[in-house]
Amino acid sequence: MSSVKLSGTATLGDRQVYRLGYGAMQLAGPGVFGPPKDPQTAIRVLQEAVESGVNHIDTSDFYGPHVTNQLIRQALHPYSADLCIVTKVSARRDDKG
């Protein structure tokens, strides 16, 4: 049995997800800005996470910006019915951080 399944489940809205998910922030470039150095590796990481049993991915349109959401789409679309992609909204940064 995979570590993901051993982590147990939690209820997220009306879905049951494994407690061990994947945080997509580090898929973007350095400092969470821009594309990764190797987009194909990022895509493989996402695919392998899901293949290992991960059924929820935490992302934000702010990462990149837009980069991680595009990578998730490229790697995993069409999405399986049990995959839960959660995101944050309204993240903004100005020149002061």
UniProtKB/TrEMBL annotation:
Q: Carries keyword Oxidoreductase? A: yes
Organism of derivation: Klebsiella michiganensis
- Give the GO cellular component terms, alphabetically: cytoplasm
The GO molecular function terms of this record are: oxidoreductase activity
List the Pfam families hit by this protein, alphabetically.
Aldo_ket_red
Q: What is this protein called?
A: Oxidoreductase
Q: Cite the InterPro entries for this sequence.
A: Aldo-Keto_reductase, NAD(P)_OxRdtase_dom_sf, NADP_OxRdtase_dom
Transmembrane regions listed in the UniProt entry: none
Keyword annotations for this protein? Answer: Oxidoreductase
Query: Entry's Gene3D superfamilies?
Result: NADP-dependent oxidoreductase domain
Q: Which domain of life is it from?
A: Bacteria
Location of the NADP-dependent oxidoreductase domain:
19-89
